[in-house]
Fold this protein.
Amino acid sequence: MKPEISVIVPVYNVESWLAECLSSIANQQESSFEVWLVNDGSTDGSLKILEQYEKEDARFHVVTRVNGGLSAARNTGLSHATGEYVCFVDSDDVIDPGYLKQLYEAAVQNHAEIAVCDMEYFDETGKRSFSSGGDFSHTSVREMPSLIGINNSACNKLFKRSLFEQLQFPEGKYYEDLATVPVLLYRAKWVVKVNRALYFYRQRSGSIAHKANPKLFEIYDAIDGVMNTLKQDGIKEGDPLLEEVRHFYVIHGLDLTTLRIKDFEEKDIRPKYLQENMLRLQQSYPDYEHDNSYIDASAKKRLIWRLLKQKHYGMVLKIYG
């Protein structure tokens, strides 16, 4: 019998946290699932850990590939998956024992193609913070356009595998979740919410998020791609759904990208990156100042954004401290 759920775990050099992740999957309350462990060219001891789990638990299967990044590893897992539903677990994270069972039961009972849960972030100091998976119960993007803007992580969601028949994660690109999850939400007939934090996301020190990298601006490629997909699917200008996606340019492009840049370890390069970010924003969304996400922002944010437009990058960085 085919399992009901396929769990896909991309793995690259995470030997310090991998066993904890896999143990949380092995101890699921749900009984009908398989696990595809995609070794993405690891050079540490990760493969040895994967092979041990495969040897001891028939539900676990190892696939080794040349390093291609997170998207490529997820796509490899999808090509092997046989379950009616699929989910993605990052190999340094942990899931609640009820993660699979609660999401699957919610999806089946509500005839939903996507089930969503809340998340909890944790770090090595023990600090924890809650992250909402969205404020809804059972709906669709057509009934509730703002649904397309919920937490865009692929990891706190269970998907009908058929949703990926005409869609893959973009390989070699940053922001693979932002490029993919909104499209999946749009194409799903129904989406259901489980109001509980069942996915635990590890925030590791020394993250590459604080390193300057021009791939940061691929966030605009991701949003542009979502816009183009919706338009190709027949969504016309004036549709509230396109307005919801345009909010991404302000929320993810203007705001979050600015916050990432101000945290760069390389201080001297921050003004150059702030300037480039404003150029990319204006190219993708020239009318961003008339977006409701801009208009409704706090006075401090609007001040910072006006200073960015006026090229007062040093002043912006001083305000952030």
Remarks:
- The CA atoms of residues 306 and 312 lie 9 Å apart.
- DSSP finds eleven helices and ten strands in the chain.
- The mean pLDDT is 96.
- The first helix runs from residue 18 to 26.
